[in-house]
Amino acid sequence: MKLQQLKIDGFGKFNNQVFDVYSENQLFFGENEAGKSTVYQFIRTILFGFPKKREILRDFTPVNGAIYGGKVIFEDKVYGKVTVERFKEKNKGQALVTLENGQTGNDLLLEKIIAPLTKEAFDQVFSFQQEQLSELNQLNEVRLQHLLLTVGLTGSERLTKMNDTFLKERQKLFKPSGRVPEINQKLRQLKKIEQQIEVVESQEATYQDKTRRMNTLTGLVEEAEKEKNYQSDLEKTILEQQKRFPMFIEWESLTKEFSENNQENASKLEEINQEVRNYRFLLGKEKELLESQGEQLETQSPAYHFYIENQQIFEELLDDQLAVESMTERRQLLEEQLLEYQESKETLYKKYRLSKEIVAINLSDDVEEEMMSLAKEEEELIREKVVLSNEKSRLVIRQKDMNYALTTVENQLSTDVKHPTKQGNKIDPLTQKMFSGLAIAVALLFLVLAVALGKTWIYLPVIILVGLGVFGFLTLGKTKTSTSTPEEVKEDYLLQLSESDEVEHSLYELENQLVGIETNLASLQNKKQDWSEAYGFSMKETMTLWLSRIPIYLQLQTIQEKEAEMTKNLAEIDRVLGSYSDLLSFAKQWIPLENRTPKESYQAMKHFVDEQQTYLKEQALSSNTHQSFQSQLNSLRNNLTDSKTKVLSMIDLPQVTTIDEALIWLKKQDLSKASQSRKAEIELSIESYFDLAKSYKLVEINQHLIRIKNKEDELAETISSYQDEFQALKYELGQMEKNGSLDTLYQQRENQLSVIRDLSDEWMTYKIAEELTQDVFQYLSDQQLPALLATVTSYFKILTDGTYLKVLVNNGQLYVRDNEQRRWSIIQLSTGTKDQLYMAFRLAFVHLHTEDYGAPVIIDDGWLHFDTKRKVTLFKLLSGFSKHTQVICLSSDQAVKAYFEAHDLSIVTIGKDGLN
């Protein structure tokens, strides 16, 4: 199969795009995110179909609404030119295949054409990815050698991964020194039971030890209760922090404001204000002088006339500018707080999967106490019901088995059997399990070979082996050959009849207990129904789950109250700012106010006033008719400069360099007096709940509250476990006093041994499967290894530019030999050389099976650790390799592009400078 053209109607970022594949060695070049991987996924999707929902790792649906799909045109040795068309919304995603002779078909025809190529073989054998090279450096020498040989013999890592899976599953069951595996746990439990039996059998006096343990548990419960009460008090403190967090933010803002503005004493402030008033008096004189001169000018600005008429109003509005800016900053802070509340609420909704309709729940203390009591009762009843139901199921099965056995014995007695009865031969159960598991494991290995090699005849032994394995498990447990006399049969019949009566009596008692439990549960359900209708709880959930969510509901209610308060404050601020904006409406003809915030409007007004004052000064300066005017103006301005210098020197702050900044500073000093009183008032309200030396965030407070609730739940579970252990010890003491616990321990030991035997059989199955995988690997090595090593040696020699001359296997170990006849193990090679060896094994497998598959090789930047020299040798190898197998390279490497350009090879550029 040789790809010739890709027609993309809509796939990922490509729309109505055509890519022509001109040569056997083709490069798709583009920067990162240009769409190289999208090209690869398009080829894979058209050939093998759109992925199912559970398989989707990346969505390539067109974002602009284009039709999802396209065409791939390739040349086949048998069928000639083949066109494969596939669209997501057309024909349920099925392919439309058109041959050169006009014949058409669907996916069945496509599979026939490209067989034995499958999607798995395409991904694992003919696709080279950077991640495969990155994983090599994480393997030790043994696993790396095994991986390289597996890749060379099967084309992929699948056999190695299957062997690893068997090993992991086996180690989950048992490890010689493990603690987590299940058999290890069961063995420890068995050892514990044996120790208990030894203690009871030796009649050691453990009564006092258990009594002391009960006293210790009583102390532990008291300590846990104290810790739980502490956490409860801490929870109340955190809830108060949630409630008072807006006040803390306001206090923090005021504190920051005071830190930025140095407070001056009253006498100095009065001196500064006096000098500012003097500056304003001089400024007024200057304005009067300039206005008197301006009246004599023949041409005046209309805007200036408007300013002169409303000069007093503009001065008053300028005094409000600082208040508008301060209020705007306050509004921004409130918006940020409101956003934090909303994010906290959404986090709680998502984490606990709550419905927004049932948040408003207000339980009285009496109802909550009653609900807690009934929740414990409900849990206990459900637990008892499950235990009794399991016991009933076990007894019913036992009763059926006994009835069957009684019927058999009764038939023997009725026919008066005197000769031995042959009931069928049976193989040992363990042996039968092992051979059945072995048959299924071998079937799985043959199935892997069938998929990897594409040989359909291999499926026949797969079916036969699966049938044998299933038959072995189904026939497990058949009766063995036995010989019995009529007297023995009658004796056995009486014994089984007695046991059957005991089982029937036990079933009767269990039925009565279950009826009582069902009655109690029905009574609880009636009460739950009332609460469900009153508070909106779900009947499908337990009352324990109800109670666990109530604190979350209360937290959400608090957040909603804060949101409402914030929203109300924002509305009030917007109203006040709107009133300030309305004060400027009279000047909208001269000042651009449309689509501007109040703060921006006041800044525009300030700019307008400055322009008119500048205009006045320029007009006055251009007049040469009044020398006295100039003299007076110069004198006033000198006085203004002196006054300004005096004001700035008295303030003496680096951030105050102009008279306007000095006026703002004085305004802030006036405002800070009121803010200081507010800060002290807030500090009294929050100092008991906040460490004022620290900074707080609402999200952190909410997370802290959640951690406290989790800690309370853990303490409750700990207390419950202590109480359970206390009750268990109390029961054991009672049993020891009755001296009736030894039989129970014996039964527990037998049950544990039975479980261990079953788990051991399962462990043996995985062990055999692992060994069979190794045998299959060895078989493939014996059959294909000589040809493989010869091809790998040839490719590796080319890739290393003659540095290494041979790849060989000696005593099961993989080695390479250099041009000085020195032998090197794989782990001694550099990272780039190991990558070259891996590439040689992959290409060798494709070369050896090119007649079977005939698929193109697609390499996505598969030279991660290659330097320039190694890249050149790789491209030389690919040039020769592409003569019998098409090679498509996807890369953002400039060295790759330079090589293709230097050797006049085909390049398709995608991205900014190419196709997109």
TrEMBL record:
Protein name according to UniProt: AAA family ATPase
Organism: Vagococcus hydrophili
Transcription recorded as keyword: no
YhaN AAA domain location: 1-202
Keyword Transmembrane helix: yes
Transmembrane stretches, start-end: 434-452, 458-476
InterPro entries named among the record's database cross-references: P-loop_NTPase (IPR027417), YhaN_AAA (IPR038734)
Keywords: Coiled coil, Membrane, Transmembrane, Transmembrane helix
Coiled coil regions, renumbered to chain: 183-227, 324-384, 507-534, 705-739
